[in-house]
Design brief:
alpha+beta; S16 Ribosomal Protein, Chain: A; 2 domains; 5 strands; 50% helix
């Protein structure tokens, strides 16, 4: 019979509470178990002494009998000093995915283009100022022509009427 030391969920909806149990590996998660050796309350703070309660002697006994702990229970056993657990190292854990890398490259390219445009605009303000001074004069001339064009048809209508 394959034995497992694992968590069995209890509590109500959104309020989990776990028993640390020794059970047949083939039995359901919350089903029949052989012995309860502790409890785990994830709602308590990480520094709370009642968050994980574990009977170390019984855990050692079941480990000697061939019981395999689940990942979470193996962490609890390591903290309790019952069984050493090799730390898993995943160097790519914090690395962003390919799509995120592509988005970052696109953003960097757009930022570089914006900086180049800003540099070009800063280099050519003298030319724009000269054109800006000429522009109001051209706008005044256009406004005068439009006013004259509007007055001419009005004068013709009065003459006809």
């Amino acid at each position: 019979m394959a034995l497992a030391i694992r968590l069995s969920r209890g509590g109500s909806k959104k309020r989990p509470y776990y028993r640390i149990v020794v059970a047949d590996a083939r039995s359901p998660r919350d089903g029949k178990f052989i012995e309860r050796i502790g409890s785990y309350n994830p709602l308590l703070g990480k520094d709370d002494a009642n968050r994980v309660i574990l009977n170390g002697e019984r855990a050692k006994h079941w480990l000697a009998a061939g019981a395999q702990p689940s990942d979470r229970v193996a962490r609890f056993l390591d903290v309790a000093g019952v069984k050493e657990r090799a730390a898993k190292a995943n160097p790519k854990k914090g690395e962003p995915g390919q799509k995120a890398k592509d988005r970052a490259e696109d953003k960097a390219a757009k930022l570089a283009e914006a900086e180049e445009a800003a540099a070009a605009a800063a280099a050519a303000p003298a030319v724009e100022e000269v054109a800006a001074e000429e522009a109001p004069a051209a706008e005044e001339a256009l406004a005068a022509e439009e006013a004259a064009a509007e007055e001419a048809p009005a004068a013709e209508e009065k003459a006809e009427g």
